[in-house]
Amino acid sequence: MRYHIAFGKFRISPAKFYDFGDLMKYSRKILSRTFFLIVLLCNIACAGSPLTAASDADFPIVPISKDVPKFRVETVAANLEIVWSIVFTTDGRMFFTERPGRVRVIENGKLRAA
Fold this sequence. Notes:
Blueprint: E1 5-7, E2 10-12, H1 14-17, H2 21-47, E3 83-88, E4 94-98, E5 103-107, E6 110-111
Antiparallel strand pairs: 1-2, 3-4, 4-5, 5-6
């Protein structure tokens, strides 16, 4: 719907009268500047309050005790395929599963046949 209002020699077209193109550019510019200023102020506020570094006097030096338990690594069974879970029983047996799904047993220190 296009119509013109005439005032003597002048004609006013609603399409030209309600042109919001410049207003949208202006408001977008204002929004982007406002967002930039908010981000800048947040960065300044966070960086403006430096944290005090902790000195060595705040943390006492505690000597490490020499009663550290010693561990020994021992191979119980070899040629296994990715041991997945291990369960110890009260009678001394050890059940374990391998990743392919096999359940194996070590009894009296020997790997039983599958």
